[in-house]
User: Fold these one by one.
Assistant:
Number 1:
Amino acid sequence: MKKTVYRISLVLTLILLSLALFACTPGGSPGDDSDTRMVVDQAGRSVELPQRVERVVTTYQPATYLVFALGADEKLVGVDLASPGLEFFRLLNPAIAQVPGVGSKKGLNLEEIAAAAPDVVILFPGHDSQSLAEQLEAQGIPSVIIKPESPELLQEAILLVGDVLGEGEQAEALVSYYEEKLAYIRDRVGEIPEEERPRVYLAGPGGVLSTCSGDLYQHYLIEEAGGKNVAEELSGGWNNVSLEQVIAWNPDVIVSLQYSEQGEPEGIMADANLAATRAVQKKRVYRFPSNLGPWDYPEPRSILGVLWLAQKLYPDLFADLDLQQETDLFHEQFFGCTFTELGGRLDGNA
């Protein structure tokens, strides 16, 4: 009898000890009430964050667009300098006009960021992002670095920021939409041989003589739409190029951004220096549409830019695509109202 009682006591003691050890193991208990959690950002950094992030600072426009698309704009306590004045953001949330601007990729005001008391700062990709993260960490401010410079990395960034902000479900929906539309385009252009794909020259922010390298998200946007970026061999970011180089490339299509300097298609086609290019001769010069912000930034709305460009490159293959309807549906799903209700227009050569 004593042996039986002893065995029962020993078993109970071992069970209680196991439970105690399990409860003390980090992450081991479903009831873990730790105030912080760990995430790994796109620079491979392990970052400790509060369980609930309620105050966020963004440092460049693509990150601000992403926070809005995730439905977390009310958490913004600091943004890049340009965002408070952008019509798209003001239409969705007028309070953005009073959110402090903390800088841009050209430089950040760390004192302004500290004054905003954020739970997290979303940092842009760049050679100085690691240094900025360290400076913020020295002030007790956590940050995550995003690097959304390809379709895969953009999807990763969406999921990362969705996790950080507690908007995982919305992030999953954004990624599903993005993947679905890429698959739709790839299904139609995937069998076109490389040598038959239109050669595209993208006129960048600086106008006709600036363009994107093969390292930028805009390069992948062209590729996903079924085109070939004539400047893919360039490296770095936006590159200035010579007129002679553009002529030598002799693109089939010239596309300018909404924010390109002197990017109007009429002006490009009237430029005598470009008259001999196939794009001008065939009148295949276009400008990205939308009066409510760019569609080429590495943020969720860029998928609309891919759809638009695919239709421009292959009008017969995408004759059934109603871009206005698709744009309205996208904005209604992820921003709560249609593009048309916001006063959106697909302008010019769109």
Note: The mean pLDDT is 91.
Number 2:
Amino acid sequence: MGRHPETRGAGPLDKGGFWAALRREALRVTRSRFMLVFMFLLPMATFGVLIATFSSGTPRDLPVIVCDRDNSALSREVVRRMDATAALAVAGRVADVEQGAALLRRGRAYALLSLPAGLSRDAAWGEAPAVTVFYNNQWLLTGGVLSRAAREAVQSASRDMDRRARMARGEDPARAALRIEPVRVDQHALFNPGMSYGHFLLPALLPTLMQLFIMMATVRAVGGEFRHGTAGGWLESAGGSPAAALLGKLLPHTAAFTLTGVFMWSLLMRFCGTPLHGDGRLLLAATVLFIAAYQSMGCLFVALTGSLRVANSMAGFYCGPAFAFSGITFPVMGMPAPALFWSGILPVSHFLRLVMQQGMQGAPVQASASAVWVLLAFVLLPPLVYLPKLGRLMRDPAMWGRL
């Protein structure tokens, strides 16, 4: 390896510094199948798989087993209304609850509807019989959909029966309907009124996957220079400036992932119909900060470990469970202190808060300012630690070639 100049030999943006390092990295990226796969092919493939998974927006035709021991007009009406809902589909009938429970355990259905003997008679006598729904709540999303759809179907049949009975006793139809539900809840869903799981989950899942690709590519790009003993040439190409070397190294990746991010948002908003009620320019700027934040954290892991293998492990540990702590499926305000801390040190948590505010909620720009400042801190603060450390590693051949 040739001798490389000292750091003071060139400024970060001198012709022989930053631009030379940038050209060097751009050439390495175009010749690396790993980088091209991680920057473009894998993100786009996973985006496509997830979009196809949530293409219907809401779960439909979830299989339900029916045990009708009454076999009356009322019980058949309840079953008909269950089957008529978009979310549920009657997949079979059983003679007793034990047979239905066995089918649930074997995964043949998600729920069992049990209509007891004497249902119609007890309802006519005003004894309020119970229709029982057994469902597997291990899958919270599926359980919630089943519970809501079954309750609405049964309540709808019950209200219609009550109204007909009142009208048969001579009550006015409007008055009969009022007596059935004297106090009503007037609900207004402010955001995502269609209950689309695609609009809810896709804008969170896709960036969460993207952060993993950004981190892995960054660790590979920076750590690979030390692993393969090319750190000296990298520093030399930048005119001996670690800052120029890192800027030139990272900027082609930033540009590539920005293109991937633009593709991601275009897919979501144009193809999937994901709403953007806020400021699109702020969302794009935050996306660039999000990419730079994970690049900064990737450099920090390489600097702290000096090992590509260990840095990769740290990156996986850091990014792998990020979605669980992002506040999308479990509210941040309900998390215990350790989980709240872990959520706070993940750039994706702050980015997704901004995405939800500018996407569905249409919040003013000022409401998302705190998320922008936090992302900017992830970009600017870690270099105070990793830049001096990486500079020393670049000049120490004893640290090159480590796993």
Note: Strands lie at 62-68, 88-93, 111-115, 132-135.
Number 3:
Amino acid sequence: MAAATARAAFGVQHIAKGIGRLSNIVLKRGAGSFVWTDEGRKLLDFTAGIGVTNLGHCHPKVTAAAQAQIGTLVHGQVNIAMHEPMLSLIEKLKPVMPDPSLDTFFFWNSGAEAVEAAIKLARMATKRQNVIVMQGSYHGRTFGTMGLTKSKTVYSSGFAPFMPGVLTSPFPYCTQCAVACGNDTLGFENCCNNPIHELKVLLKQQSAASDTAAILIEPVLGEGGYVVPPPGFLPAVRKLCDEHGILLILDEVQSGFGRTGKYFAAEHWGVRPDILVMAKGIANGMPLSGIAANKELMDKQNPGSMGGTYGGNAVACAAGVACAEVMQEEKVLENVAARYIPI
């Protein structure tokens, strides 16, 4: 016990305070839905690494795939050559994309990197600069994504100025909607569609459609409240984007890979993103993220403008392949759907 306490004290002293941990426990191992501390305590992990270990800690097949890849090829730098695990992962992901047009991929390490890559692609492809995000959104804590994140000021306080050209529009959070509260019509089955009206007003008053590259949305609002939008919201945003040549970027970092009962949350509304952002559950804890788009759009970026030393790491991609196989073999989506209770 004394040694464990000393270990935690060492971490408090030498790990940056800016992390903002929820606890000072020290984890030693994990299996399935449980983790064990260095004091021997067994804990049920409700966090799942903040939506990462969708298949449970140390899933045997994913672990075996990563171990085998470590003994074969650890690092195949993507700006030098392709490697087999990345090609295999693309083969696994293509059939489960929310739309068959999403056929071209690239991979990074973290969700924030992938979000920034999506913004780069949108600006390059459209030759426009502005990006619209939703009130309450979370897209990362890197310098670029701080300006896109609107869930808490703690992520960005003191770091301004941020990336320019970012505007904010309301997400349909019906229990906090002034219109719904005023009319006593709470509940998204009675949605007033005011957020769509506000989005149209924004395009008329703050960012002309001809200056707007993309609308970036979490299909299910994440830490802004874990809010499911009303049925017509995302289709209406898609229609608005189509009318004005604006790209729709769906950030499925947290809502993807089975967490809503579909591979990607966009499937619930039949909405096609122009760019899909993914991470977290893609490799069950290995650092891996990516974007998907159609080839014509993706190829608008110049060679060399994408990359990264560790992007699409071979071990992480091998884990991602195993995750995709487990999702199918163990009928994970069917299990989620069977346990789903409307709230």
Note: DSSP finds twelve helices and ten strands in the chain.
Number 4:
Amino acid sequence: MRIEICEPESGDRKSQATAPRIGSVIWTGVGGVRDLVEEVEREGLRLLSFADPRFFADDERGIRFCRDMRREGVNVLWSAHLTEAPSRALLREMRLAGAQQVELRMGPDEILESHAAAREFGFGIHLAHEDGTPYATDASGYTVEERRAVCERLPGLHSVQFDLAVALFKARRFREVMLPLGKAMTLGYPMNELCLNLLACLSAAKHYPDMAAGLLEQARYGCPHPVVHRNRSKLCAWLEFGGDVKGVRLLLDPSADCFG
């Protein structure tokens, strides 16, 4: 296997220049996780895409691959395309190894069961026919209760704690956001700027714009997600014009959106 670097696409030139790059993992039939680790470390990648369905077409091989990723300490978020119905065991190992999104490209007989299984582990899900045409229904939103259930199934996993924090924020249950968000950060969630961005959104929602500005300033270092630059611009413009009593509503991009 090898990795090709995909430069981020963004209409904002500044965001494009600093946004995190995505490593597209190419199937070659040779090589293993050690090769992946070396390229991830050399390129400083935090996001990967496994677009070739052969990586996870075989359950046993896919499970071994995911366990090897964990054993090697690969701490990245990634997406995968699946054309064969995955077992629940494979989906669980994929999630534990950092998978955030799956595209299920299957016929109607297989996709219902696969969709239900993927939801058990809180994946962002895209549904497509075997020819790649999207299904008419492609909703994969989760309630707070569903996110809590995923956390119980996968204790100690940083990404599901972050997803729960996002769900609580969207439900305007602001007092409850900090517990799962703190867990996500402590457990080593790799997109730290998204954690800081969520804290900034929380501060803005509670009418503390100066605190939000400070958090976004911290988040902008390195190669942050484009939402950080958009929120800094939005907040600066709001402050420049004196603000208003309604406050400023910042943008909250869930982690799955990192993959476009």
Note: The mean pLDDT is 88.
